[in-house]
Design brief:
The chain is α/β, with parallel strands linked by helices. Among the domains are: about 170 residues, no CATH class; about 120 residues, no CATH class; about 140 residues. Helices cover about 15% and strands about 25% of the residues. The chain is built from ten helices and 45 strands. The protein has a 31-stranded mixed β-sheet, with helices on both faces. A three-stranded parallel β-sheet has the order 11-13-15, with no helix packed on it. Helix 5 links the parallel strand 1 and strand 2. Helix 1 crosses helix 4 and helix 7 packs parallel to helix 8. The longest helix has 13 residues. The protein starts with 9 loop residues before the first helix and ends in a 6-residue tail after the last strand. About 40% of the residues are buried.
Length: about 725
Amino acid sequence: MQLWINSLPGEVLDRILTLLSVAEVFAFVDPNTLHQNPGIRRAVINRLNHAPLLAHNRLQQTYLVMYLLSPNFLDKSAMEPLHIDNLEMLLMMESTWGLTLCHPVTMSYHIWNLLCATDLLNHLKRLENSNFEYNIEIEFDPSILPKVSMFYLINQIARCAGTKIRSISVLNYDGGFAFDPYTIPNLNALWLENSDVNFTGPFSPSLKRLCLHPNRNGYARNRPVHINYSLPPNATSVLLGNCLIDSSSDKYPFPHSIRTLSLENIKDLTPSHYSRRLMEENQQLRSLTLVNSISTTDLKTLDSFGITNVQKPNWNLGATYLTSLQISRSALKDIVLPDTLRELNISNNGIVDLHRINLPESLVSLKVSDNPIDWSAGVWFPPRLKYLDLGNTGIKSLKPFDFPDTVEVLILAVNKIESIDGIKFPNSLRLLAIGMNRITQVVNPILPRNIHTIHFTENHIGNSFRLSHDQDGNPLNLKVLFINHNRITDFSAVKYPKSVEVLNVDNNNILSLRNIEFSPNVQDLSFRGCDLSHIRNVTFAENSKLVSFIMSLNDLKSIDRNTIQFPPSVQLINFGGCAIESVHPESFTHLHSLRHLSFASNKLKSLVLSLPSSLRELDICCNKIRRLQLNFPANGDSSLAALNISQNKLNKFSPSMIGHGVHGVYHENLVELDITNNKLTDNYMAAILDEMPNSLIACFVGYTGVQDSYGYDIGQNILDHPLCLGKRIDVSHL
């Protein structure tokens, strides 16, 4: 059907779409709309052409925000996020209407289970006929149970889209893998963090930016990365941590174009002192960061300098032209700073008297966290600050503070603040982090209307919580609110703005929820670990946008349709780690957007459940289930891809018990079945594999006899698929 706005002039349509995010544009149009409305189609193509697109698989906004705040070589602040499912329409627009993009598409995958890895592979296969360029980012959740092969994933990336890949980022991979950089010949950037990698060949000349840090988080237990073939000869940015530079590197071309260099805990075995040469022989070097190393560079040539663990420094930097400076874990009392400085980080230096540091008015970012500062003498802040971090600096009261109105991010966490009553916060404030203090109540503090995010995590806040209006009585436009780890006992007493999209109430002492309606804007809602034992008549407003609902680690005994009336928009429901003994069979049949459902670690003995065709993942591990029957809509296309029924008491199993082959339903998308630690043997399961869907790549039964580095037993994948040969036997993430 042709829409009336299709007849608007092209420049008007272009202007309208610039007011929408790319995600909102995709929510507005579908292939039929684009086919039938050429004016809208041209405007959508124009909107996408210059947009740096981020296609991701994170359902919960919290994970997306954490990703966007984590630095790498990409400019995440400019990215336009959309769910990875929309990639299909992008590729359709490319093949049908010749859509071209000025920027590579960033495909960012958070992998918390095997299904995420297989989804990545399926999307990679679709790239074979695409001419777009791509950045691939793979972030493993630290709690992931399957042992996914990074070697296999890298080879599939190379096979499906090797020449189209411009950057690769791998984070938190638990297990070593070998990587030959030449398998992805046009790679411009490589970021490997908290991951154990072994390079089997030299770096490609196309590689300009490289980050290698196998233990950045401090607990990854990875081996140092061995650099055997020198660094990329044309590198412009090199960040190395916990690396060993082998003597063989002297035999390969040395990089002379580095502009950004970071060296942290480097062991240099070269006769030529390779790491020192990186500082001395790169004449274009403008940014230098050192940890446990000594600078041999003239600081007057740098724009940015960072150093850690220096005990007898010369801190007269007044003659330099630095715009960014970071000093930590060093003997810092007096320092002369240049007038050019815009960013200053002097966290964790034992600073007591901040007045002895002459802060230049040019600063827009100031971090002084983790210092025992004496605030009794008053405080002055540069007038142009946008970012101010005062975390863990001994603040007891905010009354002496006069924050510049320009501040957009204010960090006050880990202090001794008891009240924010009467405190005027900056007019430009967008994020306030004031967790881990001693605040007991929040009663309409003086906040700007458009503040976006507030973290009240881990205070002493009780039922006196009213946060709804700004100083002029207008409703706050707050989007993200964390009041977790407090002392709230009555949620009905909590007043918060209807604009809130992310609401986290985890780890309070709320025994019941009764007759509560959540506003239509709430998308992520979490009551994890609140001691809830009774829920009745919890509803969501009409046109609710709820996506994620977490109710794990509570004391609930049963679930029925009168407990919570979920809206049709919900995609993820987690009741894991409760004490649930029964679930009404029809509790979820009407939820046609539901993708992930968990009743892991409860007290279910029998489970008969009717589920929507949309469901992709069901986790009912760690119960006491002896009887199981899953039903799906007759003759429907099942989306079920992952089923975890491990650590139960089943003594028989057949495909019909999970609805496969029943009433015309076939689970042709099922990739994972975990039935470990039931009363079934691997021989028993092997005998019925022919009755299971051909899509299955992992069937976990029994033990491999191997333990991981943390002492967990590894369950056996009897299908021996190269993507995943085993799975850690543990309770799923709750």
